[in-house]
Design a protein that fits this description.
It is a single chain. With about 600 residues, the chain is mainly alpha-helical. Helices cover about 70% and strands about 0% of the residues. The chain is built from 25 helices and three strands. The longest helix is centred in the N-terminal third of the chain and has 45 residues, at about 1-45. The protein is globular and about 75 Å long.
Length: about 600
Amino acid sequence: MKRIIVVLTLIVLVLMSIGLLLSQQNQEDTKFKKILDSYLDETWKFFPTSATQAGYHKYDNKLEDLSGKNIENRHEALDKFNQEFVTKVDSSKLSPENQIDHEIMMDALELELLDHESLIPWEYNPVFYNDIIINSVRSLLTNNSAPLNQRIKNATERLEELPKLIKQANENLKTPPQIFTEIAINQFPGILNFYRTELPNLLGQAPPNLKSKAQSAAAKVIPALEGYQNFLKNSLLPKSTGNFRLGGQTHARFLRLTLKNSIPLEELIARARADYSNIRREMFLVAISFYKIMFPHVNIEQLGTRLTQEQVRNTVIEGVLDKIKGEHVAEDEFINKIKTTADEIKNFILKDQLIELPQESLNIEPMPIEKKGTTLTSLIIPGAYETSSSYTCQVASVPEDWEKEKIDSLLEEYNNFLIYFWTIRDVYPGQFVSSYYTKKFPSLLRNLLPNKPLIKGWPVYIEEMLIESGFGNYDLRLRLNQLKLYLRAVVDFLIEFNIHEGSMTKEQAIDYMVRGGFQSQTEAERKWANVCLNPGDSVYTYVGIQEILDIEKEYAKLKGNSFSQKEFLQKLLSYGALPIRHLKSKIIQ
C-alpha cells in the first residue's frame, strides 16, 4: 500500500512539474507574441510597401518616409525591441517552436541593425528606391486583397506621396557604388513605362471619380520620375565612387545572420575548392568520348605532353560544349521553352513518383522589364499573411535592345541541354516547392524570413535525383550540362568571398567564371552584377546543398535499410524553411 502511495505521489509531482512548465511556457509565449506583434507592426509602418507585399494591409495608404528623422527613429526602435526581446522574454522558458522563432527574430533584428550601421541602403543604393517606387503602387493594383475601389484610393494616396519620396532619394543618396547606379538607371525605363502605360490600364475598371483622381496624382508623379532619372544619370552617376565590397568583418556578420549554417564556413570553402576540381574532372570524363568523335584528328595523349592537366581538361570540355551549345531555341521562344521544359520535368517526377508535388500549379510568365538586370527569374509567392495559393515564376525574356552577339551568348548558355537543369533549379520544382511547404507551416516568422540556403539548395538535390532516375534517357550531353550547372554553384560560392572579402576585380571574376566554370561572357557579367548588388545570394545554393547532403547521410545511417529519398525529402520540407542547424536536429532526433 505504501509503495502505491509513493508511486501516486511521484506521478502527482511529475504532473505538477509538467503543468508548471507548461504554464511558464504559455506565459513566456504570450509575452513573446505580444512583443513580436508590436515589432512587426512598427516594421510594416516603416516599410508599408513591404507590408502590402506580405499581405499586411493596415498601411496600404501610406508610403515610406525616409527622412533623416524617421530613419533615426527606426534605429532607436530597433534598439528598443532588441532590448525587449532579451530582457522581457526568457527564451529558455518558451515552447520549443517559439525558441526557434525567438532566435530567428534576434537574427532579423541584428540584420536590420547591420543595415543602419554598415550597409545604409537609403544612402548608397539607388536600387533600394527603385523597388519602392515601382512596388508601392503595382502591389496594390495587381492583387485582390480588397475591393478595387479601396485599392485605388490607397494607390492614389501613395501616388500623392511619391514626389516627396523621390525628393528624399535626391537628398539622401551620397556616393553609391557605380554598378548600383548603373543598374538603377537601366531599370528606370521600365519604371516609367509602368506609370505611363500600365497604370492607366490597371485603372480601367475604376469609377470615373476615383479614376480621375488617381490619374491626376499619376500626372504629377511622371515629371518627378523624369527628373529623378535625369538626377541618376547626370548627378549621381558621376559621383558614384563608393565601394560595393562589404569587407571581411561585415560580410562574415551578414552571412552568419542569413545562412544559419551548421557546417563551418571554413569547411564549406575547403569543400568548394575540392568540388571545383572534382566536378571538372567528372566533366572531362563525360566529355572525352564526345571529343574523340568531334575532333578525330586531335591526339589527346599528345595534348598532355605540351599542356598541363587543367589545360587538357579545359580544351576537351570547352571543345564539346562549344559543339553542342548551338542547339537552342530562338530568342522569341525562350519563355515558351521553359514552360514546356517545366511540364516535362513535372510529368517525369509524377510518373516515377520521386517526390510529392503540390497540387497547386506554378504560373510562368514574362518578367516586368523594370526587374530585369541581375536575375533571370523571380518567384512571386503569396504574402505571409495571405491565404492565397497563387504562385508565379517570372522569367526574363531576351532584351530587345541587345546586340546579336549578346543574345547568342545568352541562348547558347541556356541551350537545349542546360535549360533542363536550370529550370529544375530556378523554375520548377525550383524554389516553388520548398516555398509552398514553408507556407503551409504555421510559423509566421518562418514565412516572413525563410532560410534561403534550404530554399535554394533543395532543387540541386533534385537535379542529381532526376539524372540517376534516367531523366533524358541517360543522355551524356545532359549529364555534362548538369555538372556544369553544379560547377556554377561552386564557382559562385567561391567568387562571393573573393569579391566581398578580397580584392578580385571584375575582369578576374569574369575570367574565373568563363575559364574555370565554362560560363558564357554574358552569364558571367550578369553574375558579377548580382554578387555586387545582392551579397549572400551567390552563397546560398552551395551552402544549402552541402547541408542537405550531410543531413541525408546522417538520416540514412539512422534509418538503415528503411531509408527512402522521397520520405527524406518530405521530412526535410515539413518543418518550414527554418534555420538548418535546427532542421538537422529535428530530422535526426
